What we know:
Low-confidence stretches: none
CATH superfamily of the largest domain: Medium-chain alcohol dehydrogenases, catalytic domain
Oligomer: single chain
Shape: globular
CATH topology of the largest domain: Quinone Oxidoreductase, Chain A, domain 1
Strand content: 25-35%
Number of strands: 15
Number of helices: 10
Helix content: 25-40%
Amino acid sequence: MEILEIHEGHLRPATRPTPQPGPGEVLLEVAAAGVNRADLLQVAGHYPPPPGEPDHPGLEVAGRVLAVGPPENAAPTLAVGDRVAALLAGGGYASHAVVPAAQTMPVPDTLTDAEAAALPEALATVWSNLVGVGQTPVGALRRGETLLVLGGSGGVGSTAVQIGRLLGARVIATAGGPERVAAVEALGAEAVLDHRALDAAALTDAVRGLGGADVILDVLGGPALAQNVRRLRTGGRLVVIGTQAGRAGEVDVLALMKRRASIHGTTLRARPAAEKAAIMRDVVAHLGGPLASGEVRPTLHAAMPLAEAERAHAMLRDGVALGKVVLLP
């Protein structure tokens, strides 16, 4: 099979034997692979794959089933030719990929392969953090509450806006520049604040002027912590899922205590396979209908050949992408 491997901080084409599926796995012919910031970190040497996983990047793909391994309890029954999208711990930048059947989802006919490849990471991340599966949900977003999505025009953010609305929440979001603000408004956010026109303190004042947030989904990380605590309502939950602005930050603990608020940090890639399977089952059960009807859709910025992966990475790194970027093997 053809892959993109990491070599000295860059990606280069390589050929490797096509793997075969084991128990509970399927082999996919990859039609499209989603690009995520974790891929950029891995190429730079900052985010190695979990032990035993492929060492080439790619955390989500869409394609057709070429081969099915021996069945395994609780895994969905798939057949050769089925069209699916899948969540991976690595190895998506390739012409073929072996994936756990339990981490796949059927692709509605209303979606292209490129759109389907933009779904698994964002859906699983948002659902597991706003709703939760098999554990106390960190966000525990309830109908009628206010959700603040930082970075509402990104792949995860644009999905969070739509799912928050679907769950009956009032959604506020941030975005950079008039084009992105308009795009996020079109997704259903009640208010979208332009973070390029407001500094952090002014943004906090604007959020508080809108009543504050019960749940904040934050991709920025450390430097945003202090202001995010000030944006929370009493009993609010700050869920940190990224470090785009940096890893270190300070928190006014008294402000946190006065609000009886909580801060949670989560990742998806290194979760146990059983937990990721449970998340994907819930995603299929609760979001399959809205995906088929178009009520929830991926925001796709660009689809480009796999050979142009470094250009795709630059789009994310430079903040050019509005929504998801996918690669076509």
